[in-house]
RNA sequence: GCGUCUGUAGCUCAGUUGGAUAGAGCAACUGCCUUCUAAGCAGUGGGUCGGGGGUUCGAAUCUCUCCAGACGCACCA
């Protein structure tokens, strides 16, 4: 005696229920003679101890609005929802029946719990199976033009695991946002104008002269990494130039370092669209001014800059969250890093993105207020600039913290980690945690091929499904070449007979929610929701695999139904991993 | 001292706009390989969600305060 609710279009269960409840609220308002006003409530999966498919807190939230106790309200709403006189049918054209309510119960302080008929889930399954790309990834054409800037490490040495976290987050977000239909550019800002560059150049020059046989002490604050000595040696081997003053060490070392970084990122499966050089900000155009001059003029015209002791300070304290004013032009006339960063970010605004995301290590958090303030001063909408801060990564090997000091070249490089544990595990471990938490990257664990290691656990689920598919084609020759890209409506009755276990429904619910997970990840710029979700889904699959035999030679309908289910699991795992930049192997 | 982030099972961590009896993996113990990949599955034990106040019908989640830890407070980048 269930009530079938028809909805046209592409909404799935939760959304349909929400719409349904809203209609019931409207009806109640008419009965109570009060004006209908929308308010926010949830439709959620209830906790395990409640035997229902979905629950809503609408009566708890709406109690004050209707001036009734949640309990009474829930009884009234229940009656309206189950009454036959309300026609919720909303189907002028072709209609799909998605919700078939079996029962509604009022429990707790006023929760309404919905028990749905199996058909609700199977209709949904059929719908998203047939429209996967659209269902999971469509964004109602609300796409944005987005710039993602990340890594932007000084080109003074190889990338380490901390840079890799930023790279993994940035690249994964880029994949996610692209999948959701946005136009995304990724960018690496190269600090090639500052003091660090000079020190780097001198480091190479001194190493080169040492190669030539000069006895020079290597200065304290210079880059001591072996890679510089190697570059110096190679340089001498190549050209054999004795007069080092003829050599343009700066250009050589910059290009060399960028080559290294580019190859490391490539190896890490990270794509950078734009390489933006700091020197571009300082290049004079035909009128003899550069980006920095233009920015300075605006700020000076607005009286936001003052001279103290010959240096120029930007007044960030008075009008922003920043706690003090900041120098932007030094006493000697050289701009600070902050100055070129203002001009760089202004340049981003001029390029006209709807959203600019910067991904920084959390040790730079103090920098956020001043860069936001400066953008505001220039008349830009600071809401368009979103800064993601991620906490540090420490490496653990055999239960011991690996010492990392970026000074003196004592660090494990990204490439070394990749060589030790592989690309997939490295990316997964870096994406597994919320950016607000530091990561303890356990190298020993990441190497293991057991279920202790989450990335193997997920990949194994995917490989297993492919292995089952292979067996399926062997057992059922008549389906060779059949790819199951669509389920026809007539199969619904078959599904109803064969996907009716608790686990079937639980997996279908989990599959439906992939869309939600992607939306959360997009909203919070947090790929780690996806890692958690995939672990859950993989767990449900492994459990299912052990409990039920997918292939049953004597029952082709049962086999086909289960094949469709696991094919959809494979689709979601593959796409989830793709967003993380991780491969989904077909065999292991 | 000021600011940002963190504090959830022995360990590493999930916990979405505040929702009903707070979850997973590891570690410990017990089962499951003639059966689609045991690189797997099932079960048991394990918690005053750092402490205390406040808001709320309802708080791990919001707020205040205290405690502990990490990081940051340059005319470095």
Protein architecture, described:
- The chain starts with a strand and ends in an 8-residue tail after the last helix.
- The protein is built from 22 helices and 16 strands.
- Among the domains are: 3-116, 2-Layer Sandwich (Gyrase A, domain 2); 195-265, no CATH class; 454-580, Isoleucyl-tRNA Synthetase, Domain 1 (Orthogonal Bundle).
- It is an alpha/beta fold and 588 residues long.
- The strands form 4 sheets. A 5-stranded antiparallel β-sheet has the order 1-4-5-3-2. A 5-stranded parallel β-sheet has the order 8-7-6-12-13. A 3-stranded antiparallel β-sheet has the order 9-10-11.
- Helix 7 packs across helix 9 (249-267), helix 18 crosses helix 22 and helix 21 (528-547) runs antiparallel to helix 22.
- Helices cover 49% and strands 14% of the residues.
- It binds one RNA strand of 77 nucleotides through helix 2, strand 10, strand 11, helix 12 and helix 17.
């Amino acid at each position: 005696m269930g009530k079938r609710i028809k909805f046209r279009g592409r909404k799935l269960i939760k959304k349909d229920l929400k719409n349904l409840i809203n209609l019931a609220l409207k009806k109640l308002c008419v009965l109570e003679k009060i004006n209908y006003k929308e308010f926010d409530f949830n439709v959620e999966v209830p906790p395990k101890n409640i035997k229902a498919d979905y629950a809503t807190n609408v009566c708890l939230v709406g109690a004050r609005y209707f001036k009734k106790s949640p309990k009474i309200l829930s009884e009234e709403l229940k009656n309206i929802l189950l009454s036959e006189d309300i026609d919720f049918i909303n189907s002028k054209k072709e209609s799909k029946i998605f919700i078939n309510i079996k029962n509604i119960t009022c429990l707790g302080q006023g929760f309404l719990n919905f028990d749905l008929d199996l058909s609700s889930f199977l209709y949904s399954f059929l719908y998203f199976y047939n429209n996967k790309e659209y269902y999971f990834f469509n964004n109602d054409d609300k796409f944005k033009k987005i710039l993602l800037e990340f890594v932007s490490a000084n080109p003074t040495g190889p990338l380490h695991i901390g840079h890799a976290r930023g790279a993994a987050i940035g690249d994964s977000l880029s994949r996610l946002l692209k999948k959701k239909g946005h136009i995304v550019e990724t960018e690496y800002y190269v600090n090639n104008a500052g003091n660090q560059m000079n020190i780097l150049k001198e480091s190479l020059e001194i190493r080169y002269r040492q190669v030539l046989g000069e006895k020079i002490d290597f200065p304290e604050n210079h880059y001591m990494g072996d890679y510089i000595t190697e570059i110096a040696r190679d340089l001498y081997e190549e050209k054999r130039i004795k007069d080092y003053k003829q050599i343009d060490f700066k250009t050589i070392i910059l290009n060399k370092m960028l080559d290294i970084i580019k190859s490391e990122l490539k190896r890490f499966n990270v794509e950078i669209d734009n390489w933006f050089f700091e020197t571009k900000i300082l290049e004079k155009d035909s009128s003899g001014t550069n980006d920095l001059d233009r920015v300075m003029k605006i700020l000076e015209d607005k009286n936001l800059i003052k001279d103290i002791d010959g240096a120029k300070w930007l007044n960030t304290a008075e009008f922003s969250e920043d706690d003090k004013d900041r120098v932007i032009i030094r006493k000697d006339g050289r701009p600070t890093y902050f100055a070129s960063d203002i001009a760089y970010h202004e340049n981003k605004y001029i390029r006209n993105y709807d959203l600019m995301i910067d991904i920084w290590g959390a040790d730079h958090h103090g920098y956020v207020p001043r860069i936001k303030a400066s953008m505001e001063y220039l008349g830009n909408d600071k809401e368009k600039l979103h800064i993601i801060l991620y906490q540090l990564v420490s490496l653990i090997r055999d239960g011991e913290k690996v010492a990392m000091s970026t000074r003196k070249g004592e660090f494990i490089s990204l490439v070394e980690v990749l060589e030790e544990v592989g690309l997939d595990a490295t990316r997964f471990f870096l994406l597994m945690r919320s950016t607000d938490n530091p990561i303890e990257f356990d190298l020993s664990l990441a190497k293991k091929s057991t279920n202790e290691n989450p990335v193997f656990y997920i990949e194994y689920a995917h490989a297993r499904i492919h292995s089952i598919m292979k067996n399926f084609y062997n057992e059922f020759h008549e389906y060779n070449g059949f790819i199951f890209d669509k389920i026809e409506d007539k199969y619904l009755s078959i599904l109803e007979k064969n996907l009716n276990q608790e686990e079937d429904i639980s997996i279908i619910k989990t599959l439906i929610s992939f869309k939600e997970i992607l939306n959360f990840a997009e909203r919070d710029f947090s790929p780690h929701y996806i890692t958690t979700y995939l672990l859950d889904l993989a767990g449900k699959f492994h459990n299912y695999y052990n409990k039920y035999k997918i292939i049953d030679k004597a029952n082709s309908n049962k086999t086909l139904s289960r094949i469709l289910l696991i094919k959809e699991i494979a689709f979601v795992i593959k796409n989830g991993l793709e967003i993380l930049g991780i491969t989904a192997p077909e065999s292991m």
